[in-house]
Amino acid sequence: MIIFFIAVVALILGYVLYGALIDRLFGIDPSRSTPAITQADGVDFVVMPTWKVMLIQLLNIAGVGPIFGPILGALYGPSALIWIVIGSIFAGAVHDYFSGMLSVRHKGESVPEVVGYSLGNWAKQFMRGFSVILLVLVGVVFVAAPAQLLNSLTGAPMPLLIAVIFGYYFLATILPVDKIIGRIYPLFGFALLFMAFSTMIMLMLKGYTLYPQRSLANINPVDLPMWPLMFITIACGAISGFHATQSPLMARCLYNERDGRKVFYGSMIIEGIIALIWATLAMSFFQNPQELNFALGKGGPSYVVNTISKTLLGGLGGILAIVGVVVLPISSGDTAFRSARLIIADFLGMSQKEKIKRLMVAVPLFIVGFILSKSDFDVIWRYFGWANQTLAAIVLWTSAVYLRRLATFHWIATVPAIFMTVVVVTFFCYTKIGFGLSLEISSAIGFCAAILCAILFFLHKAEKSTAIPEKTGL
Question: 205: domain CATH number?
Fold first, then answer.
């Protein structure tokens, strides 16, 4: 039990200490007007209370990632806990903070525009296509996951559930942010927190042995290598590029820059705690990786969530807990499509204040999403995992360039950028979705790619950016 509490305390201290350092190095300016004020349009740029913005950000970035990823990562044993803690503090929260605050500084623009200011026009154009593809894949995947959970809970036909979820996504994509998302997400947030903490408390009260397999060795029952697979599998609970597509949504609703640490860095730390809880539940409810792997074989992470929740919380509590899990992918799926709409609108220079213009962008997006929903979700998810972490690496490099231009300590972004570059290049070279090379050769290529990126970074002329808007008083 002490291991779990040490990990939680480490995450909290990370927010208090390292988060304050990030704030200082970024150079927050409480007197600068935020886009929510200067560009208020009643649709996407809407000031909301900080506590509400923070809960919405948490729901936006969560998806099933901090639950399904850690459950799968639990097959590697307690090493997964180390990655969750270190990844959340030094990589994921840094990534989320800069993706949000750079958007605040750049008029609430989406991630491709923000990347373009630091890495150049070629990067902006690449990120436009890459981000939209990633977001549509997320939206499609996050139709299937909640539909499967609701099907196990209610027995309702999958086609009907998928149609209902798509319908909700469409409404949440085109309506003003404070009409649906701003009203129901705080309730979803409380459901999420109830689900996570109640199951963990009951695990302890019922006397389960926490972390019976206390080994940092690779104990995966099917011998999948820890490097680099664990760092792709546990994404949202440690670092996830998808978060960079979501942070600009709340950058458009932030009242003051001083709240950026709470909303962006803090939400990632909370997600890290949720990931820590579900990794612990998976490692401790099932007494060894073989048992967990057998349960996953019966119905994947959804089956594991269902089994743990109902066993620990009983019938009603189990249903409430599962509902808490269902809202996670739904609350990320709808904002994935919303983010895609905004990225396309930024590219076209099309105002989204008028409903007809929102429909002109959203309708084609959902047609593509519906077509993709007929595909094999397992294949889509495998490509999403690599694309997701590749985006994270790009955003970290963007953050490093920004800090270097400020002539401040850039290593807080540069080090995780180098590490994630090694991870994604090695993963792509090693796995079947890429080149299928040996792990040794793949790792060597990954390290060489990271060194090359670092050389290019230091050769890049660190002129002061002219893209940051001038300060205007409140």
Answer: 1.20.1740.10
